[in-house]
Amino acid sequence: MNTNGNTYTVIYSTVLVILVAAILAFVAMVLQDKQNENIKVETITKVLTAAAQADESVTIDETTNVLEMYKDNIREAFNVDGDGNVKSEMNMGKENVNDIQVPSTADLKKQNDILKKIEDAKDDAQKAELRKTLDLPVFVFDINGKKVTVIPCYGAGLWGPIWGYIALDEDGRTIDGAIFDHKGETPGLGAKIAEAPFYTSFKGKAFVDGETVFAVEKGKHEGEPGCVDAISGATITSQALGRGINLWARYYQPYLKTLAADCMQDAAEETEVQAEGTAADAAATETEVQEVK
User: Fold this and answer.
1) What is the pLDDT of residues 24-71, one digit of tens each?
2) 24 in any annotated domain
3) Does a structural domain hold residue 291?
4) pTM (2 decimals)?
5) Which of 68, 89, 91, 184 could form a disulfide with 101, with the two C-beta atoms 3.0–4.6 Å apart?
């Protein structure tokens, strides 16, 4: 064959492309399990980081074995539908940490697509059916004796998807911690949503009643429980994150309201026990006084 001819060049280029593609496909297949494991560890780290903010004494750094920490502190992990009903449980890795199940960003995107379909649906019956198909993840931790519930959020940023995890107090409203991430937001601007100065500003805020459960807006919002300040110079990314949080929080409300009800019940029972104790102490004191007389 004439090595200087066009036919040779085409055949050589085709064979080379096929060979390189085959090598890349093989390498990707070999590394797939490792990549999936890294993604899982990263997700677990973020979920734990959000939950750990409920207690300042709990720290997570590069030396932390996040799989063991997750196994030791997780109490429940399950999925709920849009009506707050538990649909399925996730493996918490109590027997083997390698079996821990957490949703990937691809899983969150699938749920976000369903949420958008519900929002766009014109028929109430269709909305009701779609709500039942939701599989919204819920993580319940025991952080030094405190119950902390973590839920995710997902949405579209300026240049790609943005997502995160929000830790809630026992009342299902007060935010104990948060952490966010992105795929391609602008460094130094929108990318700051993944930095501590921003996500730590969520602690102490709360989901509020109404159509807007939570927002991230430009300006000063120190006295507003349901809003945090947007990042200067990154208003679009900040507001997009706020819309994502608000959308997901609204569909978690049926479940979160059960937490609020349980919290109120626990508070009422504690008050009753205290009242009974006070009455008993008063009666004992009265008895002692009568005996002295």
Assistant:
1) 777 666 655 666 788 899 999 999 999 999 999 999 998 999 999 999
2) no
3) no
4) 0.82
5) 91
